Amino acid sequence: MKIRKTTEADLPQVMATFDAARAFMRAHGNKTQWPKGNPSEDKVRADIARGNSYVCVEDDAVVGTFAFIAGPDAAYVHIEDGAWNFDAPYHVIHRVASNGKTHGVAKACFEFCQQRADALRIDTHEDNIPMQNAIRKYGFARAGVIYVSDGTPRIAFDWQKEH
C-alpha cells in the first residue's frame, strides 16, 4: 500500500471512501459519528489545500484516506476524565477512513504518521470500537475525553516516540 498526498482528482474516490466508512460504522453500532455530508467535500478540499490530506492507494485505486496535521489542535486544549500523557509538540490524525474492502489502512496510516512525528494525538467516537481497538493496537494510550467543534465528546488518545 502506498501513501501519497491527496489531489483534487482524488475527491470522488475520497468521498466514496467516507461513504463506505460511514456504512461500516452504522453496521457496527456507531450510529451517529459522521452524519451524512460529514466529513464534507469542503473540509477535504481545505485539507488538500493545506497539504494535510493523504490517500492510501493500491493498484491505482484509493482504498483509504486520512488527515495528518501539525498541532496544536483547538479541540485538544481542554481535556476531561484524564490528561494528556505528555506535553510536547504533536501532530494530529483525523478523518481516518477505509473503503471497507482493503485491510491494513489503519496500520499504514499509523505507521506513516509515527515515522514522521515524535508525538501524535487522535480521537474517536465512543461507539467506534473498531477504531478504538486499532488505535490501542498501534501503541496509543487513552488520555481522556475532548469535545469536537459540534460539541460532541470523543475519546482522545496520544502516542509518543520512545527516545
UniProtKB/TrEMBL annotation:
Molecular function GO terms recorded: acyltransferase activity, transferring groups other than amino-acyl groups
Domain N-acetyltransferase: 1-163
InterPro entries recorded: Acyl_CoA_acyltransferase (IPR016181), GNAT_dom (IPR000182)
Keywords, comma-separated and alphabetical: Transferase
Signal peptide range: none
Domain of life where this protein originates: Bacteria
Protein name from the UniProt record: N-acetyltransferase
Taxonomic placement: Bacteria, Bacillati, Actinomycetota, Coriobacteriia, Coriobacteriales
